[in-house]
Amino acid sequence: MSATAERKPAGGRKIAPRVDMPCQPAGERIRNFDEVALGYTQQMATEEAKRCLQCKNPKCVKGCPVEVPIKDFIGQLAKGDLEGAYRTIKSTNSLPSVCGRVCPQENQCEGACVLNAKGQPVAIGRLERYVADTYMALDACNYLSAKLTCPAVDPDLRVACIGSGPASLTVAGYLSSRGIKVTVFEALHEVGGVLVYGIPEFRLPKSAIVEKEVQALRTQEVDFVTNWVGGRTFSVDDLFAEGYRAVFIGVGAGLPRFLGIPGENLTGVFSANEYLTRVNLGRAYAFPDYDTPVYQGRNVTVYGGGNVAMDAARTAQRLGAESVRIVYRRTRDELPARHEELEHAEEEGVILELLANPVTFHGDEMGRLTGVTLQRMRLGEPDASGRRSPVPVEGDTYDLPTDLAIIAVGTRPNPILLEATPQLKLSRRGYIEVDEETGETSIPNVFAGGDIVTGAATVILAMGAGRRAAKEIRRRIQGDG
Amino acid sequence: MPCKILEKERLIPGQTSKLVIDAPHIAKKAQPGNFVILRVCEKGERIPLTIADADPERGTITIVYLVMGKSTALLETLDAGDSILDLCGPLGKPTHIEKAGTVICVGGGTGIAAMHHIAKGHHKAGNHVVAVIGARSKDLLLFYDELSSFCPEVLVSTDDGSFGHKGLVTDLLRQRLKTDKTVSEVVAVGPVPMMAAVAKTTEPFGVKTTVSLNSIMVDGIGMCGACRVSVGGETRFACVDGPEFDGHKVDFNELRQRLAAFKPQEKASYDHHCKCTCAGEK
Predict the structure, then answer these.
(1) B235–A264: do the CB atoms touch at under 8 Å?
(2) What's the complex ipTM?
(3) Which residues of chain B lie closer than 8 angstroms to A293, CB-CB?
(4) I need a surface site. Which of A116, A170, B93, B166 has the fewest CB within 10 A?
């Protein structure tokens, strides 16, 4: 890019508009579980990459929790150097095809992009996805060729990860590519954590994307052990007794929160975790070919406004609901979900029931959910966090018929590993306390990261935490050299 | 990692079987009251089953199941030498066991097998264990010999009077509680109506009563809340807070309704399975 453009980003050169992402039409996609966003073509990607101003002090990189050298990879892509772009991303991000799809870019890299001042930031997430997908599709060998530059894995330098979500996969990728033998223990029967049980197929294809990433780790001699529950099948002490030099805990967020209102245990009321786990991990969308069933809702209500609420609502829409409503106590502007998810949900016909808060669920004599009473809300004064808090409008309640209610209001820490490891120091909220620099817990050589430290957050923050811990683990095991 | 079935015994042909499974990692940690989650095949559902016995030296666990839907029907097609695709455990909080005197362990149906492991734990802790077990008829009674091998007393009731007392386990339990003031705890494992009846029977006597709940579960590791149950007006998760709870505080009516949540789908899945297997597919 020219020096002039860099100096006068807003005036000197006319910047082309951001290239739209091609999508499956809403009318079609609500009948299937295929991925919604179809990905850029080469022409689109090149065009979009050329919009980047190649700033001298790129702000986008600071907005990225794993500090992907964004400017560099986009520069390489603009010149047609796909392999270089891929290597640049992969140098700090072990799951680029996942992050390109699920990161909240608008709050991170794209939010920091100088072009965002005009609401048209470079589509960094889409370009990251393009590079990862295209490179992977070129040739599986090429994809893994980075391995040729990796040192041989030393079987005596063993590190264990508990949980196989994005935090642990990042630790495994970082350490195995530096010659350390990693074993990942997963409690469920499939590897990937939230990428598998939580995020739906139409947003993150399981076999095309997640399995490929896991497969790449396997070729780096990472071992995966499924059906092993940290805190039940084995303890942290067992791992050290077996010769592991360090342990990384990435067991994720756990127990679903409920609303604490009457009627919540009626049949037909589900946590989003249960609903999504049935459909994603259990492939209940293919019932009865697959054995795990899911509740068929006619009038579905979803409670909460985050990405999980969007995922649940859009899943219900695809499973043939007549109406799907997201009940949220604030307004559209405060919805915490990724912009793209909200837009896609609305295109697919999901209705937003805003400024409403559930009071009671109603059921029939068989204990089945039939309806809900909602309290109308209004926005009051800003609270400590600066957000205007919702307050009830006195006496203004109304009823909605609903036979499937999905609660997506967050999680509490899963107690299994924490109760089995009483030496672990916990925060006031009950999550694992770690050293901010190293990710180390109160137990020496035991590290933790992801939702079990922060509470429910994003894939990329978990990966950032994994990377931080992995760096320290490597330093301890191999020294500073 | 698939786990191999070492022995299979058809306790009630076509209905109830016992499997001894090679699972040293689970056997080493299994305690009375624990359960496992298993999946029979690639498209299968995760189902919870209570551990009926564990042998850490041999590295085996024992499970007993009633064929009542597709997953258990698939399990029933496996024989010794076959493997179970996914086996995960031991899960749940172990039974709280301390030396307390006389403990009555009540079991009904396949619950007798699950109760067996708990009774054994109480016996090992030095308690005087009275087993009270019931079935519709003598042919359907499980684990009589196993329990008799260590319980000083095994009381039996059958609906048709073909063995032991003609009537219900709660008749025997009430009789015992009336005359025996040394009973410190009653444990009940079985169908929901039986556990509810046991809790109702013991209540006037003020005897501590523990029930082991068989809620619907998906992951079994505290993630989904499918197994939630009201205990003393509070919502608890059977998989991580239980599966054992104070029988006097459990809302059995809610539990019964929640267990029926997927009845139509369970039937559809089982019918689909029968249709496929009859048509010669696997």
Answers:
(1) yes
(2) 0.92
(3) 45, 262, 265-266, 268-269
(4) B166
